[in-house]
Amino acid sequence: MNIYFLYDFEIPASLNPAGTLDRIREDLRAYFESRGWDNYGMGALGGSLHLYGDVSRKNRPVTEQDRLALGEWARNQRFRGTVRLGAVESGDSHLRKITEWVFEVDNLSEAERAEADARDAELRQRVEAARRKPASP
Known about the structure:
The chain is an alpha+beta fold. It contains 3 helices and 6 strands. Strands 1, 2, 3, 4, 5 and 6 form a 6-stranded antiparallel β-sheet that branches. A hairpin with a 4-residue loop joins β2 and β3. The radius of gyration is 18 Å and the shape is elongated.
């Protein structure tokens, strides 16, 4: 029987510097491997908004302590967003809404926050310019 827990990191591009989700993805992968979580799934959805999946081990079950450790790791990462961690559970269905442990992370430096704000303002200006552009005949 597969013992696992689900995770979902919601990392809005408008609130974070460019490349944040990619950096967190690679750091998370390294963290999983350092803990011996050798049977994990990872995906991204929603225009690179969500980084989600499940965590388990091949030879022994993950524990509540593992889930708490991932929560602590997430709280110390440099990003701004929401983390959702599911309960340790068994079974095969890994598609469900995660409501068990949800918390905000906001660890950006002032420089990173300014970079994210400038990037978001630039994107909004581009969208507005595209809206004002007359349609081609």
